[in-house]
Design goal:
Blueprint lengths: L6 H12 L6 E5 L2 E2 L6 H4 L8 E4 L3 H4 L5 E7 L6 E7 L4 H11 L8 E4 L2 E2 L6 H4 L6 E5 L1
Parallel strand pairs: 4-8
Antiparallel strand pairs: 1-2, 1-3, 4-5, 6-7, 6-8
């Protein structure tokens, strides 16, 4: 990323890549939300600094019933985190496919784990007692 490149261009790029509205993209440096005018220079970023990209639930998803869960899916690398909304009665294969596509990993052999248990994709969040904010780990 160029030193003078504004955050807005990064948000637009990520929104296009993840096929979501730019208004749903949140960039974080540590625990701090980045302002739209932030640049690597104003943030004093170094080569090894990491900016996290989070996809927020759309307003229509936010107004749905409490049956919707917001699950965090985390790959081996810190930047491979994605938050996905899923209903309690949707098979986890839906979440797995969405993660693979969003991370550009379709066709890769990935294993998904919840609380140390390998998931097949046939499970339902309700059957596993999942709650919003729960973490699913990805290896592969």
């Amino acid at each position: 990323m160029r030193k003078k490149r504004r955050k807005r261009s990064v948000v637009d790029h990520m929104a296009t890549r993840l096929r979501v509205s730019p208004s749903r993209i949140l960039l974080l440096f540590g625990e701090t939300e980045l302002s739209p005018t932030a640049t690597p220079r104003t943030l004093k970023l170094g080569v090894a600094d990491i900016i996290d990209c989070v996809v927020l639930a759309s307003s229509s998803e936010a107004t749905e019933t409490s049956q919707q869960l917001r699950l965090r899916v985390q790959g081996k690398e810190k930047h491979q985190m994605l938050e996905i909304s899923l209903s309690q009665d949707s098979p986890l294969k839906t979440l797995m496919s969405h993660y693979e596509e969003a991370m550009g990993l379709s066709g890769h052999k990935l294993s998904f784990f919840f609380d140390g248990t390998k998931l097949s994709g046939k499970e339902l969040p309700a059957d596993l007692g999942m709650e919003s904010g729960d973490l699913i780990e990805v290896w592969g």
